[in-house]
Amino acid sequence: MNSIDGKKIASGIDAEITRQLTTLERSLSFHCLLVGDDPASHLYVRRKEKMAQDLGISFTLHHLAAEATVEIITEKTRELNLLPDGYIIQLPLPTKLREKTNDLLQQIDPARDVDGLTKINRERFLNDTPGSFLPTPVAAVMALVYSLSGDDGYRYLPFYHQGSIGKVNEDLFGKQAIVISDGDVFGPTLRVALARAGMQVEVVRSDDATLVKKTERADLLVSAVGKPGSITGNMLKRGVVGIDVGTTLVNGRTKGDFDWESVSAIASAATPVPGGVGPVTVAMLYANLLYLAKRQDEG
């Protein structure tokens, strides 16, 4: 089985970002709004900070207490909307704020929406508007899928995007993709991206009574649920390609949705956790930042 090396793919994308940064006449700045003290969120923020340092991008963390109200967070987004380049709200938010997540994301200026999660930016992609870009985890999945045909992932850097998506390789073209996702953004957005790339796509919730029947049909299986070990080899058909997006911190270690031992015995290729989707997602974060910064410079 081919263990898809996300670190290698991310390294290639980072090298291309670095090359393009040299063409700018200024440095870039990235801001991260973190609410609360969730250990996993702090871990992911540190990884983003390390990558910013490696790329020579200024990184600023804005940390609010878990008790912060919607009003306080909204006021902070107003401040960040006045700064150049872009920022993110680190997710997930504390439990008491979860139901307000989408409302708070909509406070982000779309021109500074590095994660690509505002309604305006998502609709630009769904409507195939030239110059649109994908949410970072969706873009990461597409880069990983493209890597299967020897593509280095550059093809889907958002600043190369011109309103269309390249096709997947011949082994996946016209085949069945199953995306397991319980959210309202990741699954539907990835469904459109993969369909434009030439696949048949179905999004299914993790609690679907027919889940196993659907995963058994998958030529490409993408899981983004956050339930460690919930996808096992006996749920899959031999030769499937697996992309594990559902990372969870368990006792200080990052775990994926895939039961790696059983899945790797069935799959033709799959992403490990850690070292698969995560590094590529961070790379795409800074690819989006560069893209937005260039658009701001162009007016």
From TrEMBL:
Keywords: Amino-acid biosynthesis, Histidine biosynthesis, Hydrolase, Methionine biosynthesis, Multifunctional enzyme, NADP, One-carbon metabolism, Oxidoreductase, Purine biosynthesis
Keyword Cell cycle belongs to the record: no
Domain Tetrahydrofolate dehydrogenase/cyclohydrolase catalytic: 4-115
Reactions performed catalytically: (6R)-5,10-methenyltetrahydrofolate + H2O = (6R)-10-formyltetrahydrofolate + H(+); (6R)-5,10-methylene-5,6,7,8-tetrahydrofolate + NADP(+) = (6R)-5,10-methenyltetrahydrofolate + NADPH
Entry GO CC: cytosol
Pathway(s) per entry: One-carbon metabolism; tetrahydrofolate interconversion
Domain (Tetrahydrofolate dehydrogenase/cyclohydrolase NAD(P)-binding) ranges: 168-296
EC number(s) per entry: 1.5.1.5, 3.5.4.9
Keyword Amino-acid biosynthesis: yes
Biological process terms in GO annotation: L-histidine biosynthetic process; methionine biosynthetic process; purine nucleotide biosynthetic process; tetrahydrofolate interconversion
Xref: SUPFAM superfamilies: Aminoacid dehydrogenase-like, N-terminal domain, NAD(P)-binding Rossmann-fold domains
InterPro entries attached to this UniProt entry: Aminoacid_DH-like_N_sf (IPR046346), NAD(P)-bd_dom_sf (IPR036291), THF_DH/CycHdrlase (IPR000672), THF_DH/CycHdrlase_cat_dom (IPR020630), THF_DH/CycHdrlase_NAD-bd_dom (IPR020631)
Residues the entry annotates as binding NADP(+): 247
Single GO term (MF): methenyltetrahydrofolate cyclohydrolase activity
Domain of life: Bacteria
Binding partners and assembly: Homodimer.
Function description: Catalyzes the oxidation of 5,10-methylenetetrahydrofolate to 5,10-methenyltetrahydrofolate and then the hydrolysis of 5,10-methenyltetrahydrofolate to 10-formyltetrahydrofolate.
Family of the protein in this entry: Belongs to the tetrahydrofolate dehydrogenase/cyclohydrolase family.
Matches recorded under PANTHER family: C-1-TETRAHYDROFOLATE SYNTHASE, CYTOPLASMIC, C-1-TETRAHYDROFOLATE SYNTHASE, CYTOPLASMIC-RELATED
This protein's name: Bifunctional protein FolD
Organism: Candidatus Uhrbacteria bacterium CG10_big_fil_rev_8_21_14_0_10_48_11
Phylogenetic lineage: Bacteria, Candidatus Uhriibacteriota
